[in-house]
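Following up on my earlier thread - several people asked me to post the actual chain instead of describing it. Fair enough. Here it is, all 829 residues.
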Amino acid sequence: MIDKQQQSKDSVFFRDGVRRIDFVLSYIDDKDGERKQERRKLYEANLMKVGLELETEDKSESEDGKTYFVKIHAPWEVLATYADVLKIKVPFKANDIPDNSQMPMNWLATPFRLPEHIMHPEPDYFTASFDNSKCDFFLIDNKDTFFPPSTRNRIVYYILSRCSYFRDECGDKDKKGIKRLLNNGTYTAAFPLHDVSLFWPTSDANCESDRYNLYKYWARFFCFFKEQPLNLIRHYYGEKIGIYFAWLGFYTEMLLFAAVVGTICFIYGFLTYDDNEWSKEICDEKIGGNIVMCPLCDKKCGYWKLNTTCNSSWQSHLFDNVATVFFAIFMGIWVTLFLEFWKRRQARLEYEWDLVDFEEEQQQLQLRPEYETKCTNRKLNRITQVFVVVFHDVTVVSALKISLIIACIIGVIAYRLAVYAAFASIMKDSPTSNLQVVGPYITPQLATSVTASCINFIIIMILNLMYERVAIWITDMEIPKTHLEYENKLTVKMFLFQFVNYYSSCFYVAFFKGKFVGHPGNYAYMFGSLSKLRNEECDPGGCLIELTTQLVIVMTGKQVWGNIQEALVPWLMNWWGSRKARNHPESLYSRWEQDHDLQGFGQLGLFYEYLEMVIQFGFITLFVASFPLAPLLALINNIIEVRVDSWKLTTQFRRPVAAKAHSIGAWEEILSGIAILSVVTNAFIVAFTSDMIPRLVYMYAYQPDSQRNMKGYINDSLSVFNISRIQLTTLWIFLCRYRDYRYPPGHEKEYEHTMQFWHILAAKLAFIIIMEHVVFSVKFFVAWMIPDVPSDVRARVKRERYLVQEYLHNYEVEKLKVQLKSGNLIHCV
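Reply from S.P.:
Thanks for posting it. Predicted structure:
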């Protein structure tokens, strides 16, 4: 027996130095803890009954002097039994299929490669589900190291989740599970240990240095250009976390192509800056300076000159040009390639990580403890005479939450309408002037858009704090049967909340603002004419630049805030939590105490990482036609995101319990839905939010064949309204202009839409139909051309299944021969 002070502070073994610590429980024995003490006593007794070995560190040995640590070791018999129950796959034969995955000119990727022992920490084997009665069938060299630590802690957590801590006198109701004990305060934490320190490898041959290698080759920011050691991540954290980082890395790689094309489209807009005839007309003193526009709001807004929107018109051209159409079509194809190639990458990982048949096992074997204990609300089915589970109806709750989001968005819209008039009345060149001439850089539209976007972003962040609890509460009420079903239900609910929360303001600017304003003398009002809140108009430069502003503020703000929160908050909390250890350097700060002072990763830790990236994916696909640089911003963020996530997981969080996942789950269906919706939204943005279609109609239908230019477009796109005789400075005006295609006063169809309006509308609808059909046709063709599973992976899966059958058959035959000769059975010791 080794005294604690004689142990290494990074020791992951019991005091005997032999038995490995597979899990740690901690608790504080307070004065009012008699009931908790009884629970712990029964719970730990039941753990020992199933074969686990426990060793308790007294509170006098802990750093704070009040925390007990219960160390848990799973001996071989327990590991073998539950590996059989969980159908864990283990090696039975070395892989004999040659690896032909080397690409031509592979030397070009050498600077991005990691050492082979880091990329592939384990040899490649054929595997089969473990069978405790056939131990000699598998390649077991050392029983102490046969199951890696990630598998060991997964097995122990499975036992902890199903072990009871209370039984009533009748003996028919068990309370079970470590999760309940954590919730009621019986235990303060439950976690597996990290293997070694971050800053130096272990010298113990029986202990791994995976954490050190992950920190050195993966978690440091200066490794941002290196590939990720996915096999090492999977080996240390389990397949569920490994598949997330594989998806995030693949998504980031694919963003590179979208970012390059988007940047080229932006550069095209910049290079064609001087060819922008309509902006020249707006800025020209003789054209835009002589066009008086009708007020954009009632009472406080006055008449204004068209050339005041000169800067916004030039800025809009950077994003509203011919390249926009090309980029919208390109992104429709890109998103299909991304999803199809990811399916192939995922299929390869499924085979390499022994996840091919995992979904069936997950559904059948790993029931949630909450499902087993909470399904007590039952009623008798009169037809079948069988008691069935009764679930709560949560539809009303979900509807109320969605209604709250919509109410907040309506509030932001009302803010935009009210504050625009305030900005318009303040931002004048002359306080005595009746004519509002806005400064050259800031307009009421821009000021309103920026402040409304910022307020909307703050509301989004506030509502996010509430959605987590609501979504978890609703999902818990449904009592899903398995962990996979629970996560899928929660994923759908959270994404629906976040979809409305994040995208509704962009949808408003893109598809509603400026579309239902009426015309001078007959304006449309929000909440009716009594509200005095006139619907917003787009300025002559269009609403696209405002959509761009909204997208940049919300998307960039979310990414910056998310990275700061992810990196800074855990670090500050850990710094504060470990301050006592820094104040007592003379005492041993053991591995379990070091990990106890870290933050818990939590059941939903990975869920929020996916949610963050999927929301970003929506921004760069649904509204990318308005901002071609969105993929570039996403690429920069994701390069940082990979290293921030890896750094905090390796240094700031306790080691998560290893879990299996054969795919990214419900997120894959959500991404497919966003991909389809993005084609529609971008087609509508080009058609109805940008001015691309009206310009093309003007050029090709309303200009002589000999000209084919945009001269006169601004005058053509503005209608005329007859006002009373008003003196503006030294001028008398009788007419003002507004953005629409209507007949002028005095015409027999006064203020009705002109034929040009209907021609443009027909062109917009035709463009939407053509673009959608072209993109969807290419999408479906590409999806059909690219098989979801690579041919070599299919061959390997078939060969492995064949070998399992063949080797098991030969094994059983040999075993039968031995039994016939000796009459003895082969036992697993």
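The two ends are 26 Å apart (CA to CA). That should answer part of your original question.
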